[in-house]
């Protein structure tokens, strides 16, 4: 411990923002213990890991973004305003005045064109998010242009400008400093190698140091257009072992621990530590395959919603890991529907089945991943569903075994989870509320198709309409209604949303950990 603290102090003292006085951690910097060995790349055109996504959001801005003040609101970023022409499939962006990169270079419309087209031309892992807009290496120079200091962006697809804006708020749409990046280009890589260990953004922080498997140091940008961060710097130490993170936090060597287990967090006895919980993107569900005749009656689906002990599980073995949520779009995301009309009521479930003339018990083979928390969830469901006349025969398997059966549509029931690929309600709507061709030959990577649910045409139509609706308020209303319909009328029972607990020193305030890695922000952090 002393060796670690000495090394941590030495690292902190090497920074310009740390005074040569050591208490526990400096008042003007935040010290974080985190497992960051997943980082492969820091270039926004390549970064696709959880930890790298968090860093990109603190180093770069986008034209529009879900920012630290409210991660549910799409706000102006480097664009101060924009106007969409739905008919011409064009959006015109006016650039924010006086925004600067950390290098001191002004943020220009030309930097936006360079940044977005660079992602397409490099064609690295996250490029697919932008290519949804119909951009290719061959046409991108015509699709993104500068006109009289404004960025003119064209798109091609059967979707609205609201969908386009959400694409532009995603990680690979981060804006980089063209002059700095191209000054560090090697062998035609458009600066990719250099950007994987350096930064060239306009964000609230700049990358001061990155040592793979050791540490990340961020310096505050005093000229950030939304105001300088309260913390002069962030030190993220790579600590792989969660037990070590616990020890460092409770001894005061770090301000925050990012990878502790629920049991370790529950066991913290320090008066100096608090725990904050943040909803995460993944929703956990129970689904019934419609290839099984016994599971086709809608009364079975309705009864099932009253046989889940939502509160019982979330208050015991799932405490701190999941919270009840009954709609396919996660809470904390724009457009989420957070009402929970269902609660555990086996008597009501039995009456629903009786009124529908369904004989019980109904026997269901339930495929479950043989690890926590799925095994415990399956046992709870087995007990609660038995009270209503539905008997689960639990079939444990590895993740790959369960998912393979699920993709083959060879299961009866399955207990799994789903996370959005992209920050837009359509990402989950297409998975839970869209399936026009239910044939075995028409493989779809969606939970509706995998459970052989032939989605009613009016729900399919609603999904299409929501995607193309140009008015943001109407679009949200459509997705809300869509969530209500699927919640009440599908063989997929959404039960929980994952939660993420972060223990930290009680002095730390303002830390933002949204539902995805891109929504982790340090800009508003203070230490009082």
Descriptive report:
Pfam families: SBP_bac_5. Keywords: Periplasm, Signal. Belongs to the bacterial solute-binding protein 5 family. Residues 76-439 form the Solute-binding protein family domain. With 528 residues, the protein is of the alpha+beta class. It is built from 19 helices and 21 strands. It has helices at residues 2-13, 50-59, 109-122, 127-131, 140-143, 161-168, 178-183, 192-195, 242-250, 262-266, 298-305, 310-314, 346-355, 374-386, 399-408, 426-432, 447-450, 457-468, 472-489; strands spanning 29-34, 64-66, 74-76, 79-85, 90-95, 144-147, 150-154, 205-211, 215-220, 233-238, 256-257, 273-288, 322-324, 362-369, 390-397, 413-418, 492-505, 508-509, 512-513, 520-521, 526-527. A hairpin with a 3-residue loop joins strand 8 (205-211) and strand 9. The longest helix is centred in the last third of the chain and has 18 residues, at 472-489. It is globular, with a radius of gyration of 25 Å.
Helices and strands in order:
Layout: H1 2-13, E1 29-34, H2 50-59, E2 64-66, E3 74-76, E4 79-85, E5 90-95, H3 109-122, H4 127-131, H5 140-143, E6 144-147, E7 150-154, H6 161-168, H7 178-183, H8 192-195, E8 205-211, E9 215-220, E10 233-238, H9 242-250, E11 256-257, H10 262-266, E12 273-288, H11 298-305, H12 310-314, E13 322-324, H13 346-355, E14 362-369, H14 374-386, E15 390-397, H15 399-408, E16 413-418, H16 426-432, H17 447-450, H18 457-468, H19 472-489, E17 492-505, E18 508-509, E19 512-513, E20 520-521, E21 526-527
Parallel strand pairs: 1-10, 1-11, 14-15, 14-16
Antiparallel strand pairs: 2-3, 4-5, 5-7, 6-7, 8-9, 9-10, 12-16, 12-17, 13-17, 18-21, 19-20
Helix pairs in contact: 11-13, 18-19
